[in-house]
Amino acid sequence: MAKVLPDTAFAPFGPGGLSTGDTAWVLVSAALVLLMTPALAFFYGGLSRQKSVLNMMMMSFGSIGVVGIIYVLWGYSMSFSSTHTGGSDIGGVFDNPFSLFGLTQLTQTREIDGQQAFVAGGFGTVPAIVWVAFQLTFAVITVALISGAVAERMRFGTWLAFGGIWVTLVYFPLAHMVWGGGLLSGSENSIAAWLFGTTTAQDGTVTANVAPIDFAGGTVVHINAGMAALVLAVLLGRRTGFGRIVFRPHNIPFVMLGAALLWFGWFGFNVGSEGAANMHAGLVWINTTVATAAAMLGWLVVERIRDGHATSVGAASGIVAGLVAITPACGSLSPIGAIGLGAVAGALSSLAIALKYKLGYDDSLDVVGVHLVAGLWGTVAIGLLATDTGLFYGGGIRQLVVQLVIALAALLFTAVLTIVIAFIVKPLGWRISKEDEHTGIDETLHAETAYELS
């Protein structure tokens, strides 16, 4: 039987309650972010070889299927249920997965002053079920991002099993810790509060004096996915021929199309995280645009100096690096700061992708070099560039310390649990055979080919 929520969880549309404008914008943003996963399929698919493009795209689409169902059943409950029910979380790490299981409670209504009232969610200006839709799309693409590190060699069924377990044991707890009032947030019992103390507001709310900043997912999405990708790439092993043959993208127009659609969808990702259609959302839009443009140029400059050519794949990859880096910082920087952050992100990621050859791990499509490196830079750079609390703006070192701590905590949490999950699913069989890898994973696993050339 569905748990009855307290009356304080409900609000009608209108003054002091829910906003139709904000609700409309968050719904549009949710659709934009959902589009990002098929966009990622094009981006990753184009970067893959011809004989593995379908499998690569299927891994993104498979993430939608698995994570979409799980999120409705227990994912949102594990991440945010205590914000609705008034209950306590479990050790600051995750909420009760059964408190809002299946989301039936979030469809309850009340009548307040003659108006129909709905369960509020997010920042309180949209119905909770709308906020669920938005957050669901974040969980989907985070899992899909990891797939780029295991391209061309991982069994599809094992990938789906891994995705379902990983999103439950890693993504949902980290989302709660950062956004749901847990250990990596600015709440009373968070790490930030232990470091620098707390402040009590007039309404009795207790928060950390210096709260971590992760506007739209630097830790929860990009550091998380990037670290998981590194673990899987190491445990799964290299593709046959890695280091001896060149794995060239089979369809660069697909890569460019995917990057374009990712940039388009990312406005839902970042601007939608404001939870409202207001002036600050406009600042987030501008920062997202200029940081991405600067990152593309930063990547191309490094390519030109290092390789003698500025490439279209480099431009597309620089776009993604800039989007990743600005994600946690887009609400805290000035446009000038966003340009600087983006330029550094593009250059750093362009340099970082060569590490896999020096260190010997096969991160097939550079998830580590782009998402982990740019995600770390964007998260930590807030401590330098945030206009209110950043070191370069006279805010001292405390914000930088907090950002470093949450980034390192996210790295450690993800690394340990991903290793554990990898061994849980190992009996299912990680890799296809060398013969199947040579023939092509599309044909051997899916009985399809992307192009009929006969």
Describe this structure in words.
With about 450 residues, the chain is mainly alpha-helical. Helices cover about 60% and strands about 5% of the residues. It contains 15 helices and six strands. Strands 1, 2, 3 and 4 form a four-stranded antiparallel sheet that branches. A two-stranded antiparallel sheet has the order 5-6. Helix 8 packs parallel to helix 10 and helix 10 runs antiparallel to helix 12. The protein is globular. The model has no long low-confidence stretch (mean pLDDT about 95).
Largest sheet: number of strands, sense, barrel closure: 4 strands, antiparallel
Globally, the shape reads globular
Strand content: under 5%
Helix content: 55-70%
Return the structural class.
Answer: mainly alpha
Mean pLDDT: 95
Instruction: Quickly count the helices.
Output: 15
Compute the separation of the termini in Å: 59 Å
Family: Belongs to the ammonia transporter channel (TC 1.A.11.2) family.
InterPro entries: Ammonium/urea_transptr, Ammonium_transpt, Ammonium_transpt_CS, NH4_transpt_AmtB-like_dom
Keywords: Ammonia transport, Membrane, Transmembrane, Transmembrane helix, Transport
Organism: Mycolicibacterium fallax
